Queue: 2 jobs
Job 1
Amino acid sequence: MRTKIDGELSLLERIRRRAKSTGTGLRLGIGDDCALLRLHPAEELAVTTDLSIAGRHFRLNWHPSESVGHRTLARGLSDLAAMGARPVAAFLSLGLPRELTIAHPRRKSRPQSPWIEGFLNGFLTLADLHNAPLAGGDLAESPVAVADIVLAGAVPRGRALLRSGARPGDLLYVTGKLGGASAGLQGLAKLMGGRGASRGRIPPGLQDSLAPHLYPQPRIVQGIYLQKRQLANAAIDLSDGLSTDLSHICAESGVFAEIDAAAIPIHPDATLDQALHGGEDYELLFSASPSARVPRAIAGVPITRIGRVLRTGRKGPSVTLITSRGSQPLDPAGWQHFS
Amino acid sequence: MRTKIDGELSLLERIRRRAKSTGTGLRLGIGDDCALLRLHPAEELAVTTDLSIAGRHFRLNWHPSESVGHRTLARGLSDLAAMGARPVAAFLSLGLPRELTIAHPRRKSRPQSPWIEGFLNGFLTLADLHNAPLAGGDLAESPVAVADIVLAGAVPRGRALLRSGARPGDLLYVTGKLGGASAGLQGLAKLMGGRGASRGRIPPGLQDSLAPHLYPQPRIVQGIYLQKRQLANAAIDLSDGLSTDLSHICAESGVFAEIDAAAIPIHPDATLDQALHGGEDYELLFSASPSARVPRAIAGVPITRIGRVLRTGRKGPSVTLITSRGSQPLDPAGWQHFS
């Protein structure tokens, strides 16, 4: 991370002071050319990176800055959760228009704190919760706000949960409820499109229904639980939507799958369609042997059986949805970049 | 990394096929929620991230796409070099306007290959040279081109070259020649500002003089050499310029330094000012004990003694420049973000 060397308490220096400088496995944090991570000899390192861009992954005039910071980190943590890895360190590259780094100039009597302060509040609060110290990153001026998040996590050698491990006969499970993030986004769009909505301000009465979108909870604890007990044969996090992410497991494992519409744990605010294709719920989808003792809940988060893995070899779509009216192919319809 | 699942050979699939899927330490590359890295038990991991933004770190109408890809990776590799680490894996997050991902539509008779192909050529050629397999990343549409590079490297535990290790009495050295990148950028600006310059095309006669800017060579081999033989007490790469980067070493080590203007290895195309403040040379600056046997060259790259580390405690600037007309403070005047 580039550091300022003049006398002022620069933005980077402020970040450096607020970031936890050490953690389990982090030996050297912000302030040198690289951070240094040290693992237990029996561990390997899981690394993931996710790019968030204003206007595409969030909207500056819709999302509170705390939510943007939270969501940026949650995307990366969720990838670690899907591998069953414990967080070791986070790295954040921020490209920001200058106006987002300074106090809002319009109201001198009651100056608003800079956008980046709210972003860091959201980011670091979630980072502390999951013991993911901010170990480095980069900061640059940019005409459009971009945030790239890197997470490094540790997992016992050979024990990471992969997309490619699903076997015919496995049962399929998800954590939590699905579709809430999509329903929350719809609610946010309605709120911000309506009258009286002020930039990034969420009325207290709507906080709960928008929370699955604004503040998704990565399932780190649940991923580590599955990994430690070797309960799951394959896992992925639901970032693009159940239909798309399940098709990834099928493609990487060389299998087909079918899911029961009636079994899907739909969020009370959501529709079946949102639960199937909505994306950004950041719940875990995993396959487990029929003999595995999968609990009904892990750390308070319900686990629901939604379908099964089938033998490959036949023609047709990789995922089938079973409803009361029969079977139908479930085409992936989640978020796609450059599609 | 998000993957496409439809039948087409998508952009991500093309990247995945071109990227080396394995390397020393890389156990699982592109295609799952995380990449997996495995180190020798006696090693620790060095991680760095650098954000490059169009209009700030490069210009789409000045720099050939190969150069943008090369420079993106070189920035990260250079941070590993400064720690004495060997590359294990690279991660690339790209935010690109759609037009940069498709063949240039204007000339149908002789379609130009997409900008991203040239970018990847430059990136992967340098990656292969330094055994830094592309292990993951992210790809999204963005109104402005941004590239965030993450490098993970391995270094024996406790042996990384830090900025904070300089001791009074140490001698200061640099690799290679300084100022060439700054002179090259000046040449590029002149070329692109003049008549007859076509977007991103460099006339063959100018390739050599622009190379230090367009294709800087990260000093991985030299950094590992210094680390293995424990020759350097402190090191940094010259990304922001000698004046700024030396002040970082002074600040982190709690020392002062003085350098001899006459000793600085100035690139033949450059001025003293460019050598002192130019930045982006990506040479290494290091301090070594007077008793250390520092060679005159490492793998063909000259090593030049340029000054010494002084005891702290007196007032005044942290870096002094000694010229034939006496001593003068050398204020950091390199690149600063949000300054």
Note: Chain B touches chain A through 80 residues (CB under 8 Å).
Job 2
Amino acid sequence: MSTISLCEPKYLELKNRLTQIQDLEVAISVLNWDQTTYMPTGGTFARGRQIATLRKFAHEKFTDPNIYQLLEELRAYEKSLPYYSTEASLIRVTRRDYERAVRVPSEFMAKLSQHQTVCYEAWVKAKSLKNFSLVQPYLEKTLELSQELASFFPYKHIADPLIDFVDEGMTVSILRPLFKELRQKLLPIAEVIASAPPIDDSCLYQHYPKEKQLKFGRSVIERIGFDFQRGRQDETPHPFTSSFSIGDVRMTTRVYENNFSEALFSSIHEVGHALYEQGISPELEGTPLAKGTCSSIHESQSRLWENIVGRSRGFWEYFYPQLQGIFLPQLSRVSISEFHQAINKVVKSPIRTDADEVTYNLHVMIRFNLELAMLEGKLSVKDLPEAWNESYKKDLGIVPANDSEGVMQDVHWYGEMIGGMFQGYALGNLIAAQIYEAIVKFDPEVTFGIERGNFTLLRQLLKQNIYQHGRKYTANELINQVTGKSLSIEPFISYIQDKYSNIYNLNFAIIA
Amino acid sequence: MSTISLCEPKYLELKNRLTQIQDLEVAISVLNWDQTTYMPTGGTFARGRQIATLRKFAHEKFTDPNIYQLLEELRAYEKSLPYYSTEASLIRVTRRDYERAVRVPSEFMAKLSQHQTVCYEAWVKAKSLKNFSLVQPYLEKTLELSQELASFFPYKHIADPLIDFVDEGMTVSILRPLFKELRQKLLPIAEVIASAPPIDDSCLYQHYPKEKQLKFGRSVIERIGFDFQRGRQDETPHPFTSSFSIGDVRMTTRVYENNFSEALFSSIHEVGHALYEQGISPELEGTPLAKGTCSSIHESQSRLWENIVGRSRGFWEYFYPQLQGIFLPQLSRVSISEFHQAINKVVKSPIRTDADEVTYNLHVMIRFNLELAMLEGKLSVKDLPEAWNESYKKDLGIVPANDSEGVMQDVHWYGEMIGGMFQGYALGNLIAAQIYEAIVKFDPEVTFGIERGNFTLLRQLLKQNIYQHGRKYTANELINQVTGKSLSIEPFISYIQDKYSNIYNLNFAIIA
């Protein structure tokens, strides 16, 4: 077809422009990474300006009318290609990104960004003073701006565009019934566990020297498959993973000497994100396709490694003897069963980030529902702390000691916006279970590998089915593709029932 | 004047544009710094592309016709202001930079940059195989391109534009007679020292554990005045200093466990560069004025601290007892006089970067003269190794064992170009001596401070006279301003004679 060959140079031009924009985006990421890892405090002011300038240039380059022109000219070429081919996917994903970018006026983005900084600072202060009223007016403005942002897009539910930013294809009409069902199943499970004799996890809270923790963590993530030739691990106050190219993926961790779980499980969590980014097909390098497809799929990969693998009995069959050898005084009298129970202890606690696998989703769904209620105008920011505490009382049976441990615990609403901030965490857990179930069904050898510290098979299957594709598939497309089914809560619930009935020696069948 | 007030918004617009370009330049520096300090090897390919993209954008933004327009519109405003005011200086320096940037076609810059990469790789290989002929054709091309680059500018001598890039205002007609005189004075001094009994510096080549070296070096540079709140020190294969803002200046070092001098003196050298960058007036932050004015003045600051201060007897009166305490087995039997002699040993060696203060300039002038001869067409690249060896025989009395220790020892010609590469090193030594002489004459307390480990006065005088001004003054303007005289070799020669007549117990008066 002559149309195709005519279009190819246009495709190359588009790709070339996108790579240059990507290079600017990466520079922003490097400046951010540097700021949180090694930058001296004196650099703070200029660094803020430098990042803002690069953002502005990247935005200008991407919303350039030439990009629109190229996308229009490439329509026929795109249609002539298989839907999931690299070329068609790049054009399709770029068109979606472009339409999203141009719908929002840049003055609005500047206003939002400025407000986010101010609101974040107010939150830091309000949180340290345990006084929600100090941040309330700012959060009210955030809510207004979030609603305004949504209004630039067509929607069925006002939260849909905000959810779509991070989890493309997910909507309130999909998530509300799904989460309702999830909550109904989880509440009785959490109840039954709460009535069982509590697990003693004091072994995790002894003194674990930092250097030894870092060394052990490093050996674990290397064994799991993190490629240190194509990445690094550094320390930061809050762990994160950042990709500067497929050959340079950086993860960070933090160490608490009196809490063994923190560094290790956050490292395994981040290695899940990092393997995803390291596993993207080199063919996609330098294009917008070269990253994890969305927040929920990304989180599914971190949670799969952190929880399904990293907190499994099989995993510790391999690693526990090594761990005992390194921390002899601390663990010599702790059996593998006791250790495995300790790292899986279920507690109804006020803080999401400390939560176990059973209660974690309950924390997330509380936030999701409050977000919807605020966006819908059914809940005012003024009444948010009360609504928060009521939800916690109802679903977790506790009331936070104060608003810093309650409604102000997470940065998301205060530093970003209201809407789309939390569903990815719960979805990640559901998707992880659904994908893992499908993979083990496909090749049961996976679990035997884990028990022998051999993660190659699992990693290869994930790479082949998920990692390599980058952004070619949306979350829903990928879930269908990999598991043959749409997203459902069943695999997660059955995973939780199996695992915790063993750990707590309970029978959930009666409540199911 | 109404012209002025009309122009002020234009000035702010110019400044704002320049700051954004500066932000791009800083991002490039951060990417470079990251590449040499922490980047995993897997990131190499993408990093090269990322830096090239940012360079391209920075160049585009700077050569934008709007910049020209603004500079034209600001002529009257500039003239209405004092010459060295920040505003007039920014316009003047930007105009010079702009004229330089637009004279060279961007296709030529791309060609040069591409060739530099290829030639650099050929040099790495040729050097490791000790075979100049492998890099010869590439260096021939470099010579051609260097001549072509010069041809875009008006000149008296073909090397002038290339020198002007890094040492604005310096020309062959200034440098050739200056260096001729310098060589005539230095050769007999080096000769007399060579005939004196050699110094035993074996104490420096014992085993000095790395961590202790780094700790001591850090305490020295902190004492000298490096502000760790506004900077860092990291390790790299080749030491350098990079400024990301006045509040974030980073220096690097390298440690050899069997050579005490390397890490310490390269750290003191780099701290000279770093103090300069940290000492620039905050008023200039984010503008093109916010950096050291040129290569020779920058080098004068690093050499002043490294040699005139760091290798002085007074400096070690303060630091030697500490050093002995840290390295007890190594230095317990080495007196301060023996140590001071060891760190000032003069040797006619084949390698520039290992050279002492007396012979260093001889190494540099050999290169300068060879550069001129090649650019003039009087020396072909084919004959360069022979000419190199002849010069070394004549001025240093030695012939390098092979071309890797001879003509291929420095990266400059192979990685950058021929012309303007070396004069800054010799000028730095001359300027350092001239400035230091003037400062001590102005306030002799400076030397007493050094003996007590108190560098505040020296640092303040340097800041006040040099650092704070950034690029407002050219090298020649600054030398005149600070010393009341034009550049001359006398202060350097008299410094060398005083210092080495003491160290070697000689009388140079007879040869002077």
Note: Chain A has 23 helices and three strands.
